[in-house]
Write a structure and sequence with these properties.
alpha/beta; nine-stranded mixed β-sheet; 9 strands
Length: 219
């Protein structure tokens, strides 16, 4: 199986159509109410980076490493299943280029995460993409978010965050001084049995999600 097949069939290709993808040095934010599928979206972005040979760090503030690993295995299996692809050739490579970090927000701030990432980089670990899941943006200061954004910009990385918030408009998402650090903002919501990710900032349109697999899919 050619890895190019997996890249071509990655659910993120449906997101690319919105022109809301991140460039080097930029951060994105995915919002939704609790339990709707934010982690799945972050994992899809993470897997897409890994398939493109970009080293990934997954930072979780609300899940143990075993749960995060299960997410990656499940999403990758669903991608392969849809296109009848064999994952044996890429699993080892993906695990090798992925680092999972678990933190408690009560004791570990974003600047401390930055210090950890800097130490990893100084230790020879190359990092291209970061996903930060489960952080309560209401408890994080604007200065802390800017500290993280400045690091991402300086290192020419990309970073995706999730945030539990039910607001379907940009104004209701975050305070302006926090929001300005995110190039792209998208909101996941349910419309009956259908799930869709609407672009609120940078780009336009929306992306549908398969209600069963939570993968981004064709409209």
């Amino acid at each position: 199986m050619d890895k190019k097949d997996l890249i071509a069939h990655s659910p993120v290709r449906y997101f690319d159509v919105t022109n809301a993808g991140l460039k080097d040095g930029e951060m994105g934010l995915i919002t939704a109410k609790k339990g709707l599928g934010k982690t799945s979206i972050l994992v899809q972005f993470g897997i897409d980076s890994l398939l493109n040979d970009k080293a990934l760090v997954h930072v979780s503030f609300d899940q143990q490493s075993s749960n995060v690993i299960a997410w990656y295995s499940s999403v990758l299996a669903e991608i392969a299943k849809k296109k009848s692809l064999n994952l044996d050739d890429v699993n080892e490579e993906i695990v090798r280029n992925r680092t999972i970090l678990n933190f408690n927000q009560e004791t570990f701030t974003l600047p401390k995460v930055v210090n950890t990432l800097k130490a990893m980089k100084d230790g020879g670990i190359k990092i291209s993409t970061i996903v930060v899941d489960g952080l309560d943006m209401n408890k994080a200061s604007a200065a802390d978010i800017k500290c993280f954004a400045d690091f991402i910009k300086a290192e020419k990385m990309t970073a995706w965050f999730s945030f539990t918030n039910e607001a379907a408009d940009l104004k209701g998402t975050l305070d302006a001084d926090k929001l300005e650090n995110f190039t792209t903002v998208a909101h996941l919501a349910a419309e009956g049995k259908a799930l869709s990710l609407a672009i609120l900032k940078n780009g336009e349109g929306k992306v549908n999600l398969d209600a069963k697999t939570l993968l981004m899919c064709k409209a």
